[in-house]
Amino acid sequence: MEIFHLFIISLMPVLKVLLVIITGLVLATERFDLLGPDARHHLNNMVFYVFYPALIGCSLADTMTLEGLADLWFLPVNVLISCIIGSVLGWILVKITNPPRHLWGLVISCCSAANLGNMLFIILPALCEEGNNAFGHASTCSAHGKAYASLSLAIQIIYIWSILYFILRMYANHEVREINPNDSIVILNTSISSNACSRDALAPIDLPHQIANDGNPKVSTIGKLKQSFMMIMRSNSLRKIFAPSTIAAVIGFIIGITPPIRKTFIGESAPLRVIYGSAELIGNAGIPSITLIVGANLLKGLKGSGVGPSVVIGIIIIRNIFLPISGIGVVKAAKHLGLVELDPFYLFTLLLQYAIPPAMNIGTISQMLGSGESEFSVIMLWNYGTATFSLTFWIAFYMWLVV
Asked: Any transmembrane segments, and where (predicted)?
């Protein structure tokens, strides 16, 4: 396939994303004020609790089978490999640029986690729907693309709300210590607030204890373990790991790989097909909604922040050059070792996971912790602006590589 034709095909989905993002940005301005902070908050909750779970569950239920699951095992592994490579590169970047300590977690996270959710949900089906696409029949290709995107998103959610949440919280707490180095009470209270823990999570737990020689209660080892376990179970990050999208992914897996249940919900003769159809209709609202939110959040980036240009440029170089190139090496090695199937669309998806801009969930965590919101907006503004060109190039190049 000619390289110019590949470039045109790859440009179309990127332009679609860009136009919807611009629409969200315009709607967030004071002139329209349709996507202000409150509207974004409510719409984001709708996406988190309703739209995305319906989209992920339906996509996996429709396309995932027991045989398919065995074939796609490397896809979640590839997501984790890309996150590890990005984290290492992000750590090198903070050592070189030396940003404020409380921004280290933000920089590492932006280098590590990609926006695999709505970007893959838009790009993969859009490529399939282009005329003369290189990946086969549009409907089959689009269904597989949604399944790849759903599985990628489920793994990414677990990674972001466990490892990256811990990293961001750790450095956000460091910012509090820098502000109040001598006031332990203020530090404790601010840390509690910035950790976004509920009062229930900090409530005292009855523990087995003994009285020490100095008269103070001494908590037993079993008591300490119980206390730690209860804190983990009540933590906000754990609840986010078991987010509605993750639960929906599990339900979608169960429906897809269990033939009797699958025949009940999916298919023209399925007795409960109306339930699946209704959920699919709701899920279709997820992609445009989250993309509008991305555009609206970029408005903050236009107003600037304290993040240095060297940090922004470093993240752009990592996400748009180093990671896509490293992805080629990882996928080629996996292909050489026989770890992946030779399906071009599957290989293309594995490669594309390395070229996507940073994840929007990082901004959600920054907002929860009260640290790095404006800096994240600036990083996202420049990364998504650059991705308009870099993503088009990498899509075209990856298609040329696998076809």
From this structure: 6-27, 72-94, 106-127, 147-168, 241-261, 281-299, 311-333, 345-369, 381-401
